[in-house]
Fold this sequence. Notes:
Elements: H1 2-15, H2 24-31, H3 33-52, H4 58-78, H5 83-92, H6 98-104
Amino acid sequence: MNDVLQQLDAILAARRTASPESSYVASLHHRGLNKILEKVGEEATEVIIAAKDAGENRAELVGEVADLWFHTLVMLSHLELDSSAVLDCLAERFGVSGLDEKASRG
């Protein structure tokens, strides 16, 4: 699975400086962070709607989550981060109670 994320990270990083006419991701980078955040919000809403109807169509939910993850990765890339930062954060949380972790944030 990490291999897929690493491949996406590399592609998204390369597209940061590509011509906006050459790819969808490059056009998002060109339009800036606010447009990317708008897309993340739009995809999050679509995930919520699909989850409410998941009993009827789980494939749609999976597709919407993939769209949300993808656009979140574009956001990270735009901010010169990648999936490894998130995976490292999640790894650090192993063995820590979710309640304790949340309380430690203050």
